[in-house]
Design brief:
single chain; 237 residues; mainly beta; Glutamine Phosphoribosylpyrophosphate, subunit 1, domain 1; six-stranded antiparallel sheet; five-stranded antiparallel sheet; 13 strands
């Protein structure tokens, strides 16, 4: 596998949908994650990210225009002890709740499947970062229909131990724009992680399609101390 430029991977399609990036900063001191949402409909575009405790949630920018909150209003990021959970739907709460009861990340997601939004059957993508005692590892997951057949759910979990500085992985919901939207294929893309938090944030935001991008969350977590910095960008202001 060849490492791909995150910049080029983000800009090569007008509609990757929702996406998660997880990796390690260039200097090796920070665990890095980004989560972005995009939208084609007025309902999907009518959103912002707002802080919610140590995590974030989506919120209608103009409540009067919110036609259907299902699948678009949720908490994408929650923190459970040394774990940071990042997902594209309300499975964030599923993972948080079941891991609180002693289940693993993978076991928690066995209770969920792709979104019920025929004909797209949007994949549920999830990531979890484990930062403890100066160590860092992460997992990513995708739950998708069986090549567009909703009668079966295909489940994939990817484990990344001892991530390398300046490297990460990127998973998103759709391969490209289309009708129906084609689900992400293969394993998470191996991408570069470069720059400080502001440089990285700008790289992600600036290379998402201008018409379709909605919101972006970025967090850099110090692996030694657990302290973090967060950036949120909302197109709606």
């Amino acid at each position: 596998m060849e490492m791909i430029s995150l910049k080029s991977e983000l800009s090569k399609t007008t509609y990757p949908g929702r996406g998660i990036v997880i990796g390690k900063s260039e200097d090796g001191s920070k665990a890095v994650t980004a989560y972005f949402i995009m939208g084609r409909s007025e309902n999907s575009r009518n959103r912002v990210f707002v802080e919610d405790g140590e995590g974030i949630r989506t919120q209608a920018f103009d409540p009067s225009k919110l036609s259907d909150p299902s699948l678009i209003i949720y908490a994408p990021v929650r923190v459970l002890g040394n774990y940071t959970i990042v997902t594209n739907g309300d499975q964030t709460d599923t993972v948080y709740d079941l891991m609180s009861e002693g289940k693993t990340f993978e076991q928690s997601l066995l209770t969920r499947e792709f979104e019920p939004d025929a004909p797209n059957f949007t994949p549920r993508i999830s990531g979890i970062m484990d930062i403890k005692d100066g160590t860092f590892g992460y997992q990513m997951s995708i739950l998708k229909s069986n090549n567009g057949n909703p009668d079966a759910c295909n489940r994939y979990t990817f484990n990344y131990e001892n991530p390398v500085a300046g490297e990460g992985h990127f998973i998103h919901t759709y391969m490209q724009d289309g009708n129906p939207l084609p689900s992400f294929e293969g394993e998470p893309t191996w991408v570069d992680i470069s720059g400080d938090i502001d440089t990285f944030t700008n790289t992600v935001w600036d290379n998402l399609n201008e018409d379709n991008k909605v919101s972006l969350f970025v967090r850099f977590i110090d692996i030694a101390t657990g302290k973090y910095e967060t950036r949120i960008i909302n197109k709606n202001k």
